[in-house]
Amino acid sequence: MLDPAHGGIDLGARGTEGIHESDVVLQFAAQVRRALEGQGFQVIQTRDGNENPSFDDRSARANAQRGAIFITLHIASTGLAGTVRTYVLPETPAVRDPSGLIPWDQAQAPFVPLSRKLGDLVQAEFAKRFKGSPEQAQAAPVRQLRTTAAPAIAVEISSVSVEERADLDRMIPGVAEAIAHGVAAFRPSYVVPAMPGTPLAAQP
Amino acid sequence: MSAKWRVWLGGILLAAVIGAALYFPALRRQVEKARDLTEKTAEQARRELLPPAPVNSGEPRVKAKMFWGSAANDGTLMPVTVELPLSSDPTLRAKEILNTLLAGPVDPEARTLPPDAALLGFYILPDGTAVADFSEALASSIPSGIQSEQLAVDSIIRTLQANVPKVERLKILIHGQEVDTLAGHVDLTQIFQVNGLGSEPTRPGVSDVLTAPIKKAIEKVKGATKRQ
User: Does B148 touch chain A if contact means CB atoms closer than 8 Å?
Assistant: First the structure.
């Protein structure tokens, strides 16, 4: 599941030359999608155009898929231009209610170790391609990840403050390739839980 | 027209030009000043109306550790030691510390919080949970992004962690309200671990639920914000 962040009236980060995060992430998503499909993955996007689904709507699309992984794409306002960072949610104790369902607002909790593994694999690929990028994924309480019941990462590219839009465009193939390689490396370690007790999130 | 009248007319025109040259720059300055005043945001006006941060000049100056952005390492925080007259009362001390953090470092590039943001209120509950209420500018003026929002929250937590041991957990409100995110990315619905058991020294953790006393404190903050 690919999630180009923001959209609609939410332009996200705004930079020089009228660069809007909500537009740029759609272009990144299109190329990431092609790279993932090239590795044999089926890809669904939370938005294809200028819509702005809510955080919960985006998570709901991912939570309805069995064996999905979730990648939300962002362009930062800050950071060293030409670098990329991957974020995962910090460790939180997993909570289940007596029905076996995971509370919606903590849907990510049981998946954090898997998300960390996916994040580290993807970030290692970024570090190879984009000088100055960290070697490992970082922990941050990213809202979009919290309600997602699947291995989930946020990828943030720096930044909308580049001198020319072309500087960002040049990063697209490298970002797409890095994500596709990272996800392919993660695939063997992702054991989808069996149907009984499958971690389905209960939306309030 | 006689020569005498031409001299008079020339003199009047010259006086008018000199007068205008002296008067117009002053008029322009006045117009710009008036424009600056009208352009002040409600946020700035509100901030000016707020009581000044309590400064206990009578208190001994102690070394406080402030966490601002690192110029050397992108996206990381760096501790900076500053001498401040800090109160021994934890609530006052936390207010003084956070106001110093908001005032920012010498290098504006190392700022983690927007310059027009203000601390509207700070409370510590008996169980060690603190509620910090910031003005709208904290959310509206911060550069949008995971990195910038995470640095802002992390700088608040680590600075409190280093200077106010009484604060164990922190709930951040914006203008008296609980908000979903700081500026579209970092989750503010949860409570951040600051000190105490289970706290992580380098990263803010999250607590799972809002307890009844915290909800009560949020209502208190909301009430206080409405009255202002």
Answer: yes
